[in-house]
Amino acid sequence: MIDVLTDPEIWLVILIISALGSLARLANFYAGQRGKDKIEAVYTRIKPETWENVLGYYQRMGPLPLLVASIPFVGTVLTIGAGMAGIGRNSFILWVMISKVIRNWILVLIIWWLL
Description:
- By secondary structure, the protein is mostly helical.
- It has helices at 2-6, 8-24, 26-33, 36-42, 48-61, 74-85, 89-114.
């Protein structure tokens, strides 16, 4: 296990994949900045109460909810909500990057353990 955790090539791959995934989430962030009404019109399957809950999370916790932005569907709602809530772009990228690195390391460790 130590070899996996200290291998610079694995770290590099994880950081590159995480950075690309974080940048891809910027599309959601910018969509959220367009406003709640426009988002609700596009994402009609998501209840308005969901958006209110997400905005409440950001009001109470700041960008901290972005730590789970790597979870499918949840991450989409959270990254759109970050734009709606006015989270700063640099803060957004930092927290989403942390989320992606954690998720990618968990995946690497699971794959390593299975092999």
